[in-house]
Amino acid sequence: MLIKLSGGTLIDPANGIDGEVRDLYIHDGRILHEAPQGERPQKTYDLGGKLVMAGAIDLHTHIGGGKVNIARAMLPDDQRSHPRERTALTRSGGGHAAPSTLAAGYRYAEMGYTSCFEPAIIPTNARQAHMEMADTPMVDTGGYAMLGNDDLLLQLMSEGVSQEVINDYVAWTLHATQCIGIKTVNPGGISAFKFNARELDIDERHPHYPLRPRDIVRTLSRALAELGVPHPLHVHASNLGVPGNHSSTLATIEAAEGFPIHLTHIQFHAYGTEGDRKFSSAGAEIAEAVNHRKNVSIDVGQVMFGQTVTISGDTMHQHANRSHAHPRKWTCMDIECEAGCGVVPFRYKDKNFVNALQWAIGLELFLMVDDPWRVFLTTDHPNGAPFTSYPHLIRLLMDRTFRNEQLAQINPDAAAMSLLGSLERQYSLYEIAIMTRAAPARILGLADRGHLGAGARADITVYRPSDDAERMFGTPMLVFKDGQVVVEEGRITAPVKGSTQVIRPEYDRAIEQRIGKWLDRYHSIGMANFRISDEEMAEGIGSPVEIHACRPRSAA
Amino acid sequence: MSALTLRLSESPRQRIDLSAFTPDRLDGASIADIQAIPLWVGNRQVATGDLFEVAGDDVSDIRIASNSDRLDSIGAGMSQGRIQVAGDAGAYLGRGMRGGEIHVSGNASILAGTGMTGGVIRIDGSAGDFLGAALPGDRRGMRGGRIEVRGNAGDRVGDRQRRGTILIAGDAGDYCGSRMGAGTILVLGKTGANTGFGMRRGTLLLGHPPELPPTFNDNGEWDLDVITLLTSSLAELEPPFGTLPQRGKRVRRWLGDLGYGGQGEVLVWS
């Protein structure tokens, strides 16, 4: 079947197209610029005056893995008070801060998103995480496996093994867990928490292993660069949420020693200690560091006001924040000695000095990092806010008047301590398209999406232009997934299932002996059950893998 | 003006959420409006008029007549007026109620009065489990108002109750008053196992000696003026609650649950 998208205005930063009126064709789920010879379109959409972009990609959203289920179980009222009723096409779901898989998938599609990436998959829980993502309809998914607090890596590094051995272990982890990237959360800190450390700065020695977080960041970022994994090490830095943590964030950037590094939810890591309350914005320092180092990319983790739930592998800092839980319940736990899990419900209040300043710091970072290819639009769903607030966030970035109106509502002391009021930048549609489409595809190595070039996967979102960006991005006119219309006027018209995006760097199979022995000796499951096969992904889990290309391997 | 009457035409196979029919939510609605209100029956939506015979026009006085125990959330969130149920009520009777009065001539199912902050619920028959208790995940159950049960109540009466009064003429099940934070529960009949388990504060006033967890301390017998105050405040109710002042003010007092702060009291008429 040939579909013609006629006369739309294309915004396609990956191909340098900004507002060109052009016809597109969709054939076999792919985008074409010319109709194939002798074929006439069976269906034509007249998109005159409409904006056409690639489907949006969220590279950091907690939609799978045990911690989301724990949050759901802890907050049944979140489901009760936000029901989503079934329709003839869609199933019932619900939830706001920790939505059900179905509600999350539907809402993402309704906002024009076609791919979502779960950033914190504990390797031993990868099977469950993929099952949960397979149950999230409408979007393609992928995950980042967590390393850096697992005893095997720390043990290998403490033994002083060569970088090649580490590289093999990292590559094996990507294969075994069917992931597309590696994340490290509070490197070494989650492990140190179990040795009763309550903080671990970037240059502090781990209480048991002769290692510093700096060593872990360097080793892992180097491993990914050498393996040719497109996505840099995804780093949740040390000292999350601690006033004055900007210095350890800057040190983390240095620790990569020039290897590509992605600092995630950097808003939570950009705090100074100025002012009467010893809490201030270090947004300017962080933005300057990012602007000057081309190996660094960030996503913001914007805070929005209202009820949400924070879910993180960083037990050390979730434990420290437990007294702020709202409603007053929380949990922290170890997960099979590989990492941790902390769930603390939270309500960000606009009249609260700290929360208001967090909101302002996030926006400062968006506006002060110059290169939209290296800053990504996230709320660290649901930690800063549920992903459903993205349209509102986009309006804050695109509309200075609206932003300043909101700034006038927040805690005045926080507003006075922020540079936000003086920042005049307004994001263009082109820049929004970069940060929500082109850049995430590029940084994840997804050549087939995030753009509208010939041959690209036909994940396309069509918007009605509007002065109100929140309305425009909240209810797209049309969304295509793999060439099929799945959303019209912000409502699901065809429920579909996605696939799992993975990467397969080469490695020396000899490492499996060492890993196998480790699993047999210390773990709850052995090698054969640990790894997830392609057949299991397709048949049992129900989300077949799509393998993306590695970059050429660089010399170790 | 005559009372708005909803008569269930036939017994539904699925549960029906009746939270739409409160004096607050029907304010200003005509009969035609009410007949058009969509209701979920299982996974189907059905117009009210197809399930109920609707008559009358006074939405502040609602009568529900049914032979089904599947009508859930009757009077949920209501703040004024009166609802009378001829027959049984389903789950969540008066959930989050803020004021007004509900009277059920038959039995009520689980979680009656959960999260209520004001008003009165009167149940002539028996109540199910979790009477005045917290919904799963909620940190507080009943927070005000009064529930009167002429028959028996199930397990976990007043679980996580925070304020308000629950009066039970018959027996209560196991874990009566569990995890209570404050408020008053009166049980004239017997109570089941582990009465008061996890009580932090609050008062259980009982007609029969309870089976308490070992973490309760016996304080002996006392003449407590607060009993006089409590029972005289109920004097205008119908018996057996209205005649409680005759029982006097001498009670045996137990304090607990010591595993949870131990400031709750269990008082038993001597």
From TrEMBL, chain A:
Give the molecular function GO annotations: hydrolase activity, acting on carbon-nitrogen (but not peptide) bonds
Stored InterPro entries: Amidohydro_3 (IPR013108), Formylmethanofuran_DH_asu (IPR012027), Metal-dep_hydrolase_composite (IPR011059), Metal_Hydrolase (IPR032466), Metallo-dep_Hydrolases_sf (IPR050378)
Instruction: Specify the Amidohydrolase domain's residue ranges.
Output: 44-487
Q: Which domain of life is it from?
A: Bacteria
Q: Which SUPFAM superfamilies match?
A: Composite domain of metallo-dependent hydrolases, Metallo-dependent hydrolases
**PANTHER family from the entry?**
COLLAPSIN RESPONSE MEDIATOR PROTEIN, HYDRANTOINASE/DIHYDROPYRIMIDINASE FAMILY MEMBER
Q: What is this protein called?
A: Formylmethanofuran dehydrogenase subunit A
Source organism of the structure: Thiorhodococcus minor
Automatic annotation (TrEMBL), chain B:
Top-level division of the source organism's lineage: Bacteria
- GO biological process: one example: methanogenesis
- Ranges where the Glutamate synthase alpha subunit C-terminal domain occurs: 77-204
Bilayer-spanning residue ranges: none
Any GO MF annotation of the entry: transition metal ion binding
Protein name (record): Formylmethanofuran dehydrogenase subunit C
Please tell me the species this chain comes from: Thiorhodococcus minor
